[in-house]
Amino acid sequence: MALQKISLVEQARTELLRRIVTGLLPAGTRLTEESLCAEFAISRTPVRDALSRLETDGLIERLPTRGYQVCLLDLAAIDELLVCRMKIELMILRENYAGLAIAGLRELRAELAAADPDAADALETARTVDDRLHRLVGDAADNRFLREFHARLLCRRLPYRDFRNSPGALSPAELRRERLALLDALLSGDSERACRALAEHLEAGRRDVLAAMRQIPQ
């Protein structure tokens, strides 16, 4: 039963996030548990949990009376978050390249190379690979507080990552090629090449996310 609840929470959150990402729910749109329960045909608990997660992500805010509303996206703050994450992750890689989990990177590359970019779950595969790849980089840090801080940054950027990994942005085939190239650089044994590839990857992601968000009606 718990697994079903988690699944419903994630489904509700993902659908609401998709609508915010695509502008179907512009800033100021009011959301209530009652209307979402009726639309999704699920109980209040998973809807409440999904809304709570979106509030934590800074995408919606609780109204003083009842319900929530979609927030006006603060592009400057989001840009600062993405830049901070980029600086921290690059610092970890530069200082701890020798500590990368090579076996984990090779396994991830093999899985990605075997994945079908035309499969129905190709975008979800892209998200999963992205998460695992960057966690492997962060886990190479030889300072536990730095590892924890990097992990928190990855969680904070998740809602905005989906602006890039969403339909209409880069295709699954493009995402696959990009991440294979990054994995090849990380596995090359050349720390400078690896850092350049990671910097280009993160900067491209930052640029694409901000460009996509500027297209959303506010």
Automatic annotation (TrEMBL):
Keywords: DNA-binding, Transcription, Transcription regulation. One of its GO terms (molecular function) is DNA binding. InterPro entries: GntR_C, TF_FadR/GntR_C, Tscrpt_reg_HTH_GntR, WH-like_DNA-bd_sf, WH_DNA-bd_sf. Residues 6-73 form the HTH gntR-type domain. SUPFAM superfamilies: GntR ligand-binding domain-like, Winged helix' DNA-binding domain. Gene3D superfamilies: GntR ligand-binding domain-like, Winged helix-like DNA-binding domain superfamily/Winged helix DNA-binding domain. It holds the Pfam family GntR. This is HTH-type transcriptional repressor RspR. It comes from bioreactor metagenome. The lineage of its organism: unclassified sequences, metagenomes, ecological metagenomes. The gene is rspR_32.
